[in-house]
Design brief:
single chain; mainly alpha; 5 helices; elongated; membrane; golgi apparatus; transmembrane; Membrane magnesium transporter; transport
């Protein structure tokens, strides 16, 4: 069935090209005969519109079925606990340690060097 739609697309493009060529030929005929251009003949316009719709219909059927785009596909795999986890905002040196009653200062680098 897909080959039928491809044939419709090809025939539609050929017909669309033919209508464009006919429109250009009509304009050059009007210039040669010194007539004023008012509009395209009805048969050229009908051919252009029908071939345009044939191409659109064929392309839609050749493309196949569309799939839904899931915007939250990455978020489905993550757990709720790590949803708002930003490690770059972790702060370990803050004034909370001064408020703790039982805070024991850990050995810094200089104290460790002295103990060895």
């Amino acid at each position: 069935m897909a080959s039928f739609h491809k044939i419709i697309v090809i025939v539609g493009f050929i017909s669309l090209f033919h209508s464009a060529f006919s429109a250009a030929q009509h304009r050059s005929y009007l210039r040669i005969t010194s007539q004023e251009f008012t509009s395209l003949p009805l048969d050229i316009m009908v051919q252009a519109v029908i071939s345009l719709f044939a191409v659109m219909w064929g392309v839609l059927n050749v493309a196949g079925n569309l799939r839904e785009i899931q915007a939250a596909a990455e978020l489905n795999a993550t757990k709720w606990d790590t949803q708002l986890n930003f490690p770059s905002f972790y702060i370990f040196n803050h004034r909370g340690r001064a408020l703790a009653q039982n805070y024991v200062r850990s050995a810094g680098k200089s104290e460790l060097e002295n103990s060895e």
